[in-house]
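Researcher: Next entry in the queue.
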Amino acid sequence: MSTRDGQVGDAVVTMGCGDACPVHPGNRCLDWHLDDPADLDLAGVRQVRDGIRTHVERLLAEIAPAAAAV
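Model: Structure for this entry, 70 residues:
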């Protein structure tokens, strides 16, 4: 699969843009619903950070299981 700029990728990830998310026909699109860190205190920002890490680790385990095990 290729992205808009021609680079190859396994998925297009957006983070909470909902209906405003760009459309990439033919690509696997994942919308990770996350709170906007601009509206959060430090503890809330850390929760968002940890949520992103969890999403990335799950996606990595799915698309590259051997690399995720390292």
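Model: The chain has two helices and two strands.
Researcher: Noted, moving on.
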